[in-house]
From TrEMBL:
Region (Disordered): 156-183
Domain of life according to the entry: Bacteria
Gene3D superfamilies: eRF1 domain 2
Pfam family, one: baeRF_family2
InterPro entries (UniProt xref): Bact_RF_family2, eFR1_2_sf
Protein name listed in UniProt: Peptide chain release factor 1
Amino acid sequence: MKLGFLQGVYEQQGPFATVYLDTSGDAEDAGKAIELRWRSAREQLSEAGADETTLQIIDEALQEPQRTSGNRGLVIVGNSDGVVFSDELPDRPGDFSDDELATYGPVPALFPYLRMRGTRIPHVIAVVDREGADITTVRATLASKTTEVEGDADLLHKSHTGGGAGSEQRQQNAVEENRKHNAGQVAEEISKRAAAINAEAIVLAGDPQQRQLVRQDIRKGLQPLVVETEAGHRDPNASEESLQQEVSETVGAVVDDRVQSVISDFERERGEHSRATEGWESTVAAVQRGQVETLLRAVPDASERPSTLHIGPSQADIATSESALTDMGVQGVQTAPADSALVRGLAGTDSALVLVDSEKVSLSGGIGAVLRYTEG
């Protein structure tokens, strides 16, 4: 997954409090249960050194209205200036360790969040018909926005009244041209929205013929992102359940294909001893140099790994030893949990992170990378 959406988080000054909270709302006493969980996390943060200002900021954030049903969770990252990141989790953080639920340190603890996101990627969904489309923009976080794009409908209904064969043919030609015009308008709006959120997939649903017209007008650079589904139409009374299920499966398949592609790239490059590296020391050094195109991290990971890494003020300041940074003149070196430091470094160098099944690819130390370039 691309981590650019986190860049703004790491531009803020720490230290940071990171909280993962079960905010499920099915039980009658759900509100009280959430309050008790936060109280426990608050005490844990306070013991770790979190200042009262930061804790009060999170207090206030948790007072905002939450959804009232279903299993869900919430991640909040705050510092003494405010909340720097928050997002709804797709499920309760049930498999998190106590150390992951509430942390306080120099960098946000966002690796568990990325691990839990699973197949979530920024994407655009367009349900099209001859008159326009309903376009939903799904960002990297759970926030989404749906808009309607309507073309010119006046000529879309073919005339079957008098006027002769020639008149009917002209009318039909006008209708077809209007459909193409509407498809072009929809395609341009899809292209704009996909570019704005750095979409990793564009899902087209709805009328099959109109889908093809829209698809061919989407900007050339975005064409590889387009996938189609048979589900969905623009009837306002129609159930969205089948469309949502189909889109979820389609996006999941896109992610699975890309993960497999990254694994294949890594194994090929590793076999050629070219644009690949593995193991903590060499991979972290590659992150520091900005060499990493995609980092592979095995989950679950039973490998021996460093508990912490050394970091400096810049996101690219990351190393397995303090001397590796101080020898370069970096000042203010601190330690941070290894995976949290990695995410910070990757976001700062526009690198991608792919979580891979540890049974599908063998990685020394549970970590490796496909590189943009090799040295020398």
